Amino acid sequence: MLNLFAKHKIKFAIAFVLPILAFGFNIYYNTNKSEIHTTNPNKQNNKYEILKEKCNSGDIKACLDSYPLKYKKPIQAKLNGKWGFIDKNGEIIINPIFDNISNFKENLASVNLNGKWGFIDKNGKFAIEANFDWAWDFKEDLASVRLNGKYGFIDKNGKFAIKPIFDKVYSFNQGIAKVKLNEKWGLIDKNGNFIVEPIFDDIDYY
User: Model's pTM, two decimal places?
Assistant: First the structure.
């Protein structure tokens, strides 16, 4: 028996240690992942749903309970029906005056104020005035916006880099964006030129 153990001790060690490591990782992962109220809630998570409800009702602590201490980005928080940002200690760093907000991407966050969308910097100042009907996050220095029912892309100065002529758009990915025009899909580059003409019922790309 001892000879058998000696011969296969590495296999025995692996079989014993791996489940312990997996269990430890599961605990670490589940206690460090973000679960506060964001624009993309995980509705499968019961703990999250409780925190979301409390956060929505104005309990700032509920917006912090599931954040790891190492988290450094401004955290979305709702107070008295308005959205702003707090730090990991629960201190308000951007006053809750907005009707809706997104997370910071490329140092700017899209915000809704009085029914219009714009972008603020991390000091809470408008870098791009709230003049749009809708706005999404910046990616690759461009953000998709909607104006008068059509979509286009703006730069970080708030100027249209690609005019709002599309029925729908997706964010740029490696210099390519998926766009819809006249009920057909195609792909454009950052100059707004079609690299795949909009002739398809749907289209996808890597």
Answer: 0.69
* Closest residue by Cα to residue 62 from 39, 86, 82, 97: 86
d(CA 96, CA 108): 16
State whether the Cα torsion 73-78-82-87 is positive or negative. negative
Residues in contact with 7: Cβ distance below 8 Å, sequence separation at least 6, in sequence order: none
Q: What is the pLDDT of residues 103-149, one digit of tens each?
A: 999 999 999 999 999 999 999 999 999 999 999 999 999 999 999 99
What is the pairing mode between strands 142-147 and 92-98? Answer: unpaired
Residue 4: band (very low, low, confident or very high) from pLDDT cuts 50, 70, 90: very low
Q: Are 156 and 149 in contact (CB under 8 A)?
A: no
Q: How many helices (H) and strands (E) does the chain have?
A: 3, 15
- Bridge partner list, 10: none
User: What torsion do the CA atoms of 48, 60, 77, 92 make, to the nearest 10 degrees?
Assistant: -150
